[in-house]
Design a protein that fits this description.
alpha+beta; four-stranded mixed β-sheet; about 55% helix; globular; binds glutathione
Length: about 220
């Protein structure tokens, strides 16, 4: 039985969605973020030294890192589903997007989250204007332009085919859901990029996506 170490409101939602798409049985080990810091609880450190989610265990192995988990599940249990055939241009695109989601799209979104918190976090009143000014400068000169460039890139890519790897929905679309949902929640993705908004609508309409939300619990990135 596959065990998903699931942190509420997190990237591990994608793993639940993949498992639902593949119709595989799994069990959930739930972990709750600290309400103040939003960090994972220390119990996750017993599962993997980084103490982050997602992590899965299956058949005596433990796999961390959502892209690696997706590759593992699709290869071992997918029976050829949700991955383009080897040797095709679609397979190369699939690999690219699978890595791109965490390797390229997430870093500027994470920076935005950190600098948003810097500006609003607790600090002596006389420091606040300086902290705010530094955070605003970092966001306006570097972070938001980077996010916008990524969003424009992905918007253009979806002008060529309906899904990121090609004509068919694949696990790469699942992996890309998190940066796109994060961008819609807090980094300016809106109706001015209609293909990305349509992508989000199409994935949210999938029955397996909805079942995964029922399993995983409230997912505030959607708001
Ligand atoms: N690149 C990793 C990122 C893992 C990660 O940062 N997970 C977040 C959840 S979205 C987490 O565990 N955060 C809690 C913490 O850092 O304490 C992956 O895709 O698996």
């Amino acid at each position: 039985m596959i065990t998903v170490h699931h942190l509420n409101n997190s990237r591990s939602q994608r793993v639940l969605w993949l498992l639902e798409e593949l119709g595989l049985p799994y069990q959930l080990q739930r972990y709750e973020r600290d309400a103040k810091t939003m960090l994972a609880p220390p119990e996750l450190l017993k599962v993997h030294p980084l103490g982050k989610s997602p992590v899965i265990s299956d058949a005596g192995v433990t796999v961390a890192e959502s892209g690696a988990i997706i590759e593992y599940l699709v290869e071992r249990h997918g029976g050829g589903r949700l991955v383009p055939p080897p040797g095709t241009p679609e397979r190369l695109r699939y690999r690219y997007w699978l890595h791109y989601a965490e390797g390229s799209a997430m870093p500027p979104l994470l920076l935005k989250l950190v600098f948003d918190r810097v500006a609003s976090g607790p600090m002596p009143f006389f420091v606040r204007p300086i902290a705010r000014a530094i955070a605003e400068k970092a966001k306006s000169s570097f972070i938001q332009p980077n996010i916008d460039r990524h969003l424009d890139f992905m918007e253009a890519e979806l002008g060529q085919q309906p899904w990121f790897a090609g004509a068919e929905f694949s696990a790469a679309d699942i992996q890309l859901s998190f940066p796109l949902e994060a961008a819609a929640a807090r980094a300016g993705l809106d109706a001015s990029r209609p293909r990305l908004m349509d992508f989000l609508q199409r994935i949210h309409d999938r029955p397996a996506y909805r079942r995964a939300i029922e399993q995983g619990g409230p997912y505030a990135l959607l708001t």
